[in-house]
């Protein structure tokens, strides 16, 4: 049965999509069967893994899968061990559909049930096909985020070393507790990953230390720094390229820490 992990924080530009892409790449490269799920209408994870514009998956995305209550038929194969449930801009209409039954196509598909457990339910028939399901989330505490949290046993909290991200953390931790209460997967934070660290800035160093004091049992020892190779993954993707090894290097430590925490649970 797959272990499901959400990558989240309700703030943009914290490395969620990049880290989700890298984690799914490393897991699949190490032989695990992986499903990457894009729950952000920006479709960045979709474009990173599929190397196609997210509009290519119009009508064939996680939104339609949730409306059909079954992801089967909406999964894109990426590599031997890696599949993707893609997203595009229309995922932004998900809350409207939940509360009115109206789809972006103009038809009506009535919804009744727990509005936070739609994704969890739709994933049911494929959970035994994967070792890991990893979900990318949008930069807001939206229905897309609560659905990702309620579908997951574990959450990796992305912390970009800045003041506004620092102030976002307590609310996000509350959302995880809410998912634990209202979902059925005993959702819990498995770690806080400090990302996009600018080693030249003393304020970034201070926030790194502050978050470690606040969440001593949760922070990963690995701190991800800003590196141009990582930023350029969005251009070159995960197919063999000159920069890939350098881009992935600093994520290996995070990967090992995460696997050992999951195995220890
Ligand atoms: N470690 C890193 N070093 C340099 N650039 C990065 C790094 N991680 C992510 N980026 C870049 O920063 C931007 C924001 O990252 P992204 O993964 O899209 O964040 P989020 O999904 O949280 O909005 C993107 O342009 C991405 O390519
Ligand atoms: Mg993103």
Concise description?
The protein contains twelve helices and eight strands.
Report on the architecture of this protein.
By secondary structure, the chain is an alpha/beta fold. The protein has a single domain, classed as P-loop containing nucleotide triphosphate hydrolases (Rossmann fold, 3-Layer(aba) Sandwich). The chain contains twelve helices and eight strands. It has an eight-stranded mixed beta sheet with strand order 3-4-2-5-1-6-7-8, sandwiched between helices. A hairpin with a 2-residue loop joins strand 3 (76-79) and strand 4 (82-85). The longest helix has 20 residues, at 163-182. The protein is globular and about 55 Å long.
Query: Helical content, roughly?
Result: 40-55%
Strand order of the largest sheet: 3-4-2-5-1-6-7-8
CATH names the topology as: Rossmann fold
For the termini, the CA-CA separation is 15 Å
Q: How many whole angstroms does the radius of gyration measure? A: 18 Å
| Reported CATH architecture | 3-Layer(aba) Sandwich
Topology readout:
Elements: E1 3-8, H1 16-29, E2 34-38, H2 44-50, H3 62-68, E3 76-79, E4 82-85, H4 94-100, H5 118-123, E5 132-136, H6 143-150, E6 154-160, H7 163-182, E7 188-197, H8 202-214, E8 219-225, H9 228-231, H10 233-236, H11 244-249, H12 251-264
Parallel strand pairs: 1-5, 1-6, 2-4, 2-5, 6-7, 7-8
Antiparallel strand pairs: 3-4
Helix pairs in contact: 1-2
This protein binds adenosine-5'-diphosphate and magnesium ion.
Magnesium ion (MG) is lined by residues 16-17, 40, 42, 44.
